[in-house]
Amino acid sequence: MLLNINVNVHFQIRAAPCRNVVLYGLEATGKSSISKALLGQLSPADETTSDSEDQLRHAIINSTECVSGRHLLEKTVAEVANIVGWQGKIGRCENLAQLVVELGKMLDRWTTLDDHDTGGKRLALVFDGIDRQREAPPTLLPALARLGEIIPNITVIYIVTSPRPNFLHLPGVPHIHFPAYTKPELLQIISLTEPTPQLPTGKHDTKEVWSRFSTAVYESLSKHSDRDIISFRRVCSRLWPRFIQPILDGSLSPTPFSRLLVANRSLFQNDAVLVPSIISSLPTPSTKSNIQTQIQSQAQTQGLTAQLPHTSRLLLLAAYLASFNPPRTDIIHFMKSATLRRKKKGGGTALTSKTPGVSKNRKISRKLLGPQAFVVERMLAIFHYLREDASVPRKQEGRRRDGMERREDVIGSADLYMAIATLSSLRLLVKLGAANAGDALDGSSRYRVAVGWDVVRSLGRSVGVEVEDYLAD
Amino acid sequence: MSDNAEANSHAGFDSIDHQPAYIYTPDTSTDDAPERPTKRRRVTKPKQPGIQTHGKPSLLRFEPLLGGLESEESARWRQETFQKCWGFGRLAKQEQSILDESNEDTLAEVSSFVNSSRENWGDERLPACFIVTGPNIASQDLLFRQVSVRLKSDIDGPVVILRSGDAANLKAILKKLIRDATNQRSDDDDMLAELNDRKLLYYDLEILRSFVTAHGSQRVVVAIQDSEGFETNLLVELIILLRSWMDRIPFVLLFGIATSVELFRERLPRSASRSLYGAQVDVEQTNSIIERVFQKAVASSKAYLRLGPALVSMLVERQHHHIPSVQSFIAALKYAYMSHFYGNPLSFLGNTSSNSLEYIGQLQPCHYEAIRMLPSFRRSVVERIEVRDINGARELLEDDAILAQNIKTELHSKDGKILCLLRALHILESATTDGPGGIDLYLTVFGGALKDSDFFRRLLDSLERMTPEDLISLTEKIRAAIKHGNSAMDLDGWAEADQEFLQDIKLIETKVKTLTATAVEKGVPIRSSESIHSKGLRTTVIAQRVQLSYQKSTISEAEKEYQGLVGRLLELFEEYFTLENPQHLFLNEVWLCNSTTPFADVFVPRPRAAIEHALSSPQEYLSGIDQNLPPTQPETAILYQKYLEAPSLINVADLWSSFLETVAGGEAEESDERGPLMQFYRGMADLNLLGMVKQSKKKADHLAKVSWKGL
Q: What are the GO MF terms of this UniProt record (chain A) (predicted)?
């Protein structure tokens, strides 16, 4: 395939000079690396050794590094100037017109540098990931496509993921597709990487086990989810140290592989490795580390509930209820007189007890619709109700008789508003509307809760509130 | 000083600036007619000698109390004692050092992570250190400043701290990042901004790259202080951008995380979380820091002022219910000191270490009067009468000299009594593992409720059930505690002072040891009384019938002796931990600060409740208002009360007619509508200003009700 593309690109650039080439394909299919390697091969490292008449130079501009459209243009000019050995002053490059002028000047100078030049000099300009460019001017792509019409000797190569039809607004641009790797290709590429750590028994064994191991990983995990080469390699290298742990311990030997596989079968059943973790479990993993990370993650969610002070927890619960309950059911859940009805499990009764036709209007469960906006006042009202329902933390019970906060101490207190402000700056509550519109604590400002059901349920348990009792439907 | 600045900043304003109309008086002096008007702002007058000379010292003086009867001198004593106790930041310094120490581990961890980041994770991912700080955002600032100082000395390379408030978009963040990084060694930033004679864009990381290569920096640390505060998109773009530069600039990221790493990861899309890799560092939790500050400042044997249980439990409760913060705890402590010495006329007596005994000789009559009003004085008189010491009680009440003598002895003995309490506290804390923590134990001990507390009962019960080995380890722990004291509480060992107790315990310990030794020899273990008393239930199967029979276990001689020893130990404990309630001691008001009333108002203001209360019942604030006669009330209050009765959408016309009815009392005529209308406008403007109403979008002539009372 590499050869195929090689010929293709070679043909496109050299044989019949082509102005635009589009390389497209999914992520991690080798578009950038192949074009880089190929162009590096085609363009000689230094000019003196090149015997052929035609010289090819290339410049690669990576769009992820360019913060704005102008940045891209400036960078292009700088790169090209660097490539062609431009000595003079480079003007500013604020828009596409200036880019054309600057490039034209440079290339003109470059091609006429040698007297015996036959016009074989070409420049390949590679825009990597140009479809993801930030703040790109709308005319960027069509203008770049017409670059070749104005400046001779230039070939622009676009590397994109999935081009829209006719996205260059220019007919007849050759497209080269990079298909996703098939299974044998993936395994072949993977087998080329050297795993660390190596097996003690030697290089050959390592290679053998690695290739069989990677097949097993592909079949069990990557086949269904992470099929591109990068994440496949990541999963393999993450599992490898744990997989060969029995060999390093000396409890198992590399041959027969099947016994090794059986001993490690839990590794292939757990799909937690597919989620890229941002915490490393240092490069000395043990067989238990998988379980440890699970325990850790559990401890982390518990940590949040343990860290938040009492009032903030209740506020978060109130915010969740305000987000997920429709306002009209508040009377059912939170009226003083409605305690008995609430115990009958939710306000669903109020809806479903009526004619069944009523519910036809809204069949989607409230939970699935995501959190709705609410005003601060509503959350506060629910908070005060929950506060009476919540149990006093066990640790405090001894002090309750003298130090207990009374209800009237909390109403309208500055601490309460501080807790709301803190929650919203922790992004556990999200303020809606423009960031600076109105005061954050204004009664009419609208919020939405940003924590999920799991967190809320454990929060509720920690303060002795069963959140299900208050949730409609 | 800030007051002065505030006053000065208005000096440039003319009083007629905001008057709608005024009489023009032409300037008669013609010599400098076209003089330029003075600038409005920035009219700082650096020196105002009049204010500064007499302002400062007078501000800091304590006022004479007891209705002005207290002499200036004793007020000065109080002030001096306060300054000695709070020690011009002596305590504050201690607390700062505790804070610094607490972050020390974190700093070391972060620093070692940054140093090792290159070697360990040499792949294309960004090394990132997640510092979990806990939900107290206020502490992040201090921590990150410390981190930056530490890293600057430890590593070779720039350290940049980014905050969410600093920048709203990617360009601004990059600008700040580049500027801060390059400014840290600013020799030639102009040169850096240019490459091959080209001026680079201000957000081009090329600048940073050339800086890094020019200085040979090993790492560029980018610390994102409040990662929650950043918009997710922004954070993702930044991460991806920095990652694409990883091959040229050695970035290391630090994230301050207030919630949890898991939540943070859930916020990031896969593309970003794939490019991060790193370690988590936990910061010591605020609660444990507070515990340490508490030991140092409140439970220390050197603390001058004791905080009473009610006050301490209120402070701790507040920490628990609301945001826990060391800074606010320290502020509360300082406030306790300040208010005690400022408001308590007898407070200067508490400091026995200095010359307060001299003070006793110079007590004024009003001081004696005040002492006789104290509850603790009354209690001591009642005690005397109960033991039929009528004369003694009478003398206390009538003779100032005898009272002074009593005060002297009492103050002498109080230090010893407090020391007893603290020692008991320390023994209990170090000898038991399942008991309540330091602060809770302090509360029970200083509440005088130790002997009746569940904890102490449980301790004694468990003593009865202990095996000899456990008992020995317990007594050993107690002896060690007595011998070594507690450095955190400034408590030296007191082996000499408690000879008797120590010897008794030692005796029991050796006896138990010999008992166990002989028991081991014989091969018969010594059982504790618990297992002895429980009757054994014996089942025997005879001819397919089950027979149940109770069996009383027999007690061996050694076990009997062991039980006797345990009983002796129980007695010892009961005796040793029988402590006086500090709140019952005579003159405890002098050195025990237990009043919670000022704190509630100072630290937990309730602005909203106050405004609502004032508006709904103004008669409690203003004189000359009859609650039943609404027209006498201020217009805003009238409107607010009507507002409370209204539904969530208020028709303004209805509100106005109702208002007019109330104000004019029904007999309103066309002519005098103007006055009430003006009042109405003013009231509505006030309500609007307070954020209670706003224009409704649903109906043009309606107002939307925004706030409800009592929330």
A: DNA replication origin binding
Q: Give the model confidence (pLDDT) of A74-123 as tens digits.
A: 889 888 888 888 877 777 888 889 899 888 888 888 887 765 555 577 88
Q: What is the pLDDT of residue B354?
A: 55
Count Cβ–Cβ pairs < 8 Å, chain A vs chain B. Answer: 196
Task: Report the C-alpha dihedral over residues B587, B589, B593, B599, rounded to 10 degrees.
Answer: 180
Contact call for A304 and B600, based on CB within 8 A: no
ipTM comes to 0.82
Which residue of B176, B207, B246, B259 is the best one to mutate when testing the A interface, meaning the one whose CB has the most A CBs within 10 A? B259
Task: For residue A403, tell me if it sits in a domain.
Answer: no
Give A304's contacts in chain B (Cβ within 8 Å): 259-260, 263
Q: In a 10 Å sphere around its CB, with 0-12 CB exposed, 13-18 middle and 19+ buried, how is residue A268 labelled?
A: middle
Residue finishing a domain among A133, A159, A178: A178
Per the prediction, chain B carries an average pLDDT of 77
Domain co-membership, A48 together with A79: yes
Rg of the Cα trace of chain B? 37
CA atoms within 13 A on the CB side of B439: 24
CATH number, span B121-284: 3.40.50.300
Compute the residue count for chain A.
473
Q: What is the tens place of the pLDDT at every residue in B420-454? A: 888 888 888 777 766 666 777 788 777 777 777 77
Q: pLDDT per residue over B43-84, tens digit each?
A: 555 444 444 444 444 446 777 777 777 777 778 878 877 777
Cβ-defined contact of B711 to A74 (cutoff 8 Å): no
> What is the per-residue pLDDT across B77-135, written as a single tens digit (0 to 9) for each?
788 777 777 765 566 677 777 777 778 888 888 888 888 876 544 567 788 888 888 77
Q: Do B711 and A297 touch (CB under 8 A)?
A: no
What range does the domain containing A95 cover? 2-178
Rounded distance between C-alpha atoms, residue B509 and residue B528, angstroms: 15
For residue B205, which residues of chain A lie inside 8 Å, CB to CB?
65
**Greater model confidence, B312 or B52:** B312
Among residues B641, B584, B643, B650, which one has the least CA distance to residue B618?
Answer: B641
Check which CATH number belongs to the domain holding A58 and give it: 3.40.50.300
For chain B, which residues make up each domain, given as ranges?
121-284, 451-578, 607-705
Residue with tokens 């309103």: B668
Give CATH for domain B607-705. Answer: 1.10.10
- Inspect the interface and report whether the beta carbons of A279 and B197 lie closer than 8 Å: no
Least confident of A122-136, A238-252, A290-304: A290-304
A171 shares its domain with A197: no
DSSP B674-704: HHHHHHHHHHHHHHHHTT-EEE-SS-TTEEE
Test A71 with B201 for CB contact under 8 angstroms. Answer: yes
Q: Within a 10 A sphere around the Cβ of B23, how many other Cβ atoms?
A: 5
Q: Cα–Cα distances in Å, from B358 out to A217, B354, B595? A: 86, 9, 28
Chain A contact set for B706 (CB, 8 A): 377, 442-444
B237 touching A (Cβ < 8 Å):
yes
